[in-house]
C-alpha cells in the first residue's frame, strides 16, 4: 500500500509538473493577443495563474492528501474491515455461540416454561391439595376437637366413675364391715341356736313325756266321755219318762179335745156342704141373671126392630096413598112393580136401540169425516201440484228468457268477434276468449241448474209441510167436532162411564194401598226372621264343624250321666247287700270286682284302720272279760260276797254264807249320795 | 298387622274380618262366662286390651273355623257367622250372636286396592267390640252350664269341606233381638246383632 502510495505520489508529481508545463501552453494559447498588455496584467495573470496553479497544486496536494488519506482510510478501512471481519467472525462466532446459547437458553426457557407450567399445575394441585388438606385438617381439627370434647367428657366420666368407684369401694368396705359384723352376729346366733337346739331337745323330751302323759289323759278323757255319754243317755231316759208321764196325764184332756174337734169337724163339713150348695145356687142365679139381661137386651132390640118393621109396614101400607096408585095389598104392589119393570125393560130396549143407532150414525159420521179429510187432503195435494206446476212454468219462462238473453248476448259477442276477426287477425286470442266465454257460460248454466234443483226441492218440501199442517188442522177440527158432538149427544153415557171408571180407580187405589201395607208387614216380618236367623233354603245353607264344643260337651255330659247311673246302680246293689247282711268284705270285694270301682288308697287305709280297731276292741273285750271274771271270782272267794248287776243302776248282793241260795240284797246306785239307798231284801 | 300398603285389597279385607271374628268370639266367650276366666290371658289388639283363651282344644277349634272362614271371605261365599250358646241341661238355645257379612263382589274382578285407611277400620272394630262388652248389662245371666257352637251361613252351591257338616239354624223361639254397630272395610261389611231368649218372670 505504501508503495502504491508512493507511486501515486510520484505519479502526482509528474502530473503536476506536466500540468505546470501545460498552463504555459494553455496560457500561451489562450492569450496570444494581449502579449503587449501591461506586465501587471501579466503578472496578475501570472499570479492568478500561479494562484490558480497553486490552488491547483494545493488542490492536487489536497487531492493527493485526500488520496493518501483515502488510501490510508482504505487501508485503515481494510484493516478495520479485517478487524471488523475478525471481529465479525468473532462476533459471528460469538453470535453463533450466543445463538447456540440463545437456543439453549430458549430450550431452557421452554423447559423452564414447561417446568413452570408443570410447576404451576403442580402448584395448583398443591394448592388444591393444600386446600383439601386444609379442609381435612379442619375436619381433623373438628374431629380432634370433638375427640377432645369426648375425651374431656370421657375424662369427666372417668373422674365420675372413679368417684363412683371410690364410693362403691367405700360402700363395699362398709358392707364388708357390716358382713363381718353380721358374721359375728351369725356366729353368736349359731351359738344361741345350738343352745336353743339343746333346749329344744330337752323340751322335745319333755314334750314326749307330756305327750305320753297327754295320751294317758286322753284315754282318761275318753273314758270320762263314755261315762258322760252314758250319763246323758240316762238323763235323756229320765226326761223321756217325765215327758211320757206328762203326756199320759194329758191324755184325758186330749180325748176331750178330740171329741170336741170331731164334733166341730162334723159341723164344719156340714157347713162346707151348705156353702158349696149355696155357691152353686149363686152361680145358677148369676147365670140366670145374665140370661135375663141378655134376654132384656134382645127384647129391647126386638122392640126396636118391631118398631122399625111396624114403621116400614105403615110406610108400605101408606105406599098406596103416597104413590097414588090403587094399592091395598102387596099383590097390587107386586103387580105395579112388575109393570114398572116391564116399562123399564121396554125403555132399556129402546135405549139400547137408540144408542146402537147413534153409534152407527157416529161411525158413519166418522167414516165420512175421514173421507172428507182424505178428499180435502187430495184437494190440497192437487192444489199444491197446480201451484208447483205454475211455479215450474214461471221458472221455465224465466229460464227461457234468460236463455234467449244469453243467446242474444252470445250472438252479439260472436258478431263482434266476427267483425273483429275480419279487421284483425287475432284468431288464437279470439278462440281462447271464445273458450273462456264458453266455460263461463257452462259454469253459469250449471250453477243455474243446481239452484233451480234446490229451489224445486225446497218448494216441494214447503208444499209437503203445508199439506201436513193442513191435514193436522183438519184432524184437530174433526176431533174437536167429535168431542163436542159426543159431549152433546150422550152426556148420560159418558158421565156413567166416568163414574164407573172413577169408582174402579178408587177401588184399585184402595187395593193398592192395602197391598202396600201387606207388603210392608211382610217385609218387616222377613227382616225380623232374618234377625232371628231364618234363611232361604234355596239360596243358603248352614254349616258347622262336626267336632264343635257343644257336641263334645253334650257327649261328655251323656258319658258322665251314664257313669253316674252305673255308679248309682252299683251303690244301690251294695246297699242292698249291706242291708241283707252278707259278708261285708267279701261283698265289697265282689262288688268291687263286678263294678270295677277302683278302691282308693284312703279307703284301704281306713279299712285297715277299722279292722285293726275292731281287732283291738275284740281283744280288749276278751281281756276285760277275763279280768273281770277273775276279779269277781277272787272277790267272791275272798270276801264271800258276790255282786251282780241286774238292771241299770241296780246291784244284787249274794252271800256265800246265806241260808238260802237265792237270798240276795238289792241296791240302787244314785250319784248324789254316797250311801246306797233303797235297800230291799228279796227272797227267791 | 295385615299390611302397611295404602288401600285395602280383597285378601287384606278377608284377613281383617277374620281377625275381628277371632277376637270377637274370644271376647264373647269371656264375657258370657262360657269358659272360666282363668283360662283367658290378656292381649292388646285394636289399641285395647282383650282376652284370648289359652285352652289348646278351644284354640285349635277356633283356628280351624277362622282359617276356613278366611277362605270363604276371599271367595265372597259366606253370608253370616252365628255363635250359638246352648244350655247343656235342657239343650235349649239361650243366646245367638249373629254377624251378617255383605261382600262387594266387584272387588273380585278388579284387583285395585280400595281407599280406606286401616286405622278407621280399626276404630270401627273397636267400637263394635266395646259394644259387645257393654252388652253384658242387658243380657240375662247364664246360670246353667253352657256350651257354644259356630254356624256359618254360606251359598247353597258351595262345596262342603272336610269335617264340616250341615246343621239347622238353631233359632231361639220368642227372642229379643238387639242390633249392634257395624263396620266396613269397603269390600266386606259386617253387621252385628244379638238375640237372647226372653226370660219369663
Automatic annotation (TrEMBL), chain A:
Q: Where in the cell is it found?
A: Nucleus
Species this protein is from: Esox lucius
Keyword Nucleus part of the UniProt annotation: yes
- Location, primary (coarse class): nucleus
**Record's GO cellular component terms:** kinetochore; mitotic spindle; nuclear envelope
Q: What is this protein called?
A: Mitotic arrest deficient 1 like 1
| Keyword flag Ligase | no
This chain is encoded by the gene named MAD1L1
Q: Which residues form a coiled coil?
A: 151-319, 434-630
UniProt keywords (A-Z) are:
Cell cycle, Cell division, Coiled coil, Mitosis, Nucleus
Q: Which family does it belong to?
A: Belongs to the MAD1 family.
Gene Ontology biological process terms from the UniProt entry: attachment of mitotic spindle microtubules to kinetochore; cell division; mitotic spindle assembly checkpoint signaling
Which superkingdom does the taxonomy of this entry point to?
Answer: Eukaryota
TrEMBL record, chain B:
Give the main localization category: nucleus
Kindly give the Gene3D superfamilies that the UniProt entry links to this protein. HORMA domain
Does Cell cycle appear among the keywords? yes
Question: Biological process GO terms, please?
Answer: cell division; mitotic spindle assembly checkpoint signaling
Q: Show where the HORMA domain sits.
A: 11-194
Name where it's found. Nucleus
Similarity comment text for this entry: Belongs to the MAD2 family.
Q: Do you know which PANTHER family this protein is assigned to? A: MITOTIC SPINDLE ASSEMBLY CHECKPOINT PROTEIN MAD2, MITOTIC SPINDLE ASSEMBLY CHECKPOINT PROTEIN MAD2A
- Name it: Mitotic spindle assembly checkpoint protein MAD2A
Q: Per the UniProt entry, what species is this protein from, by scientific name?
A: Esox lucius
Please name the taxonomic classification of the source: Eukaryota, Metazoa, Chordata, Craniata, Vertebrata
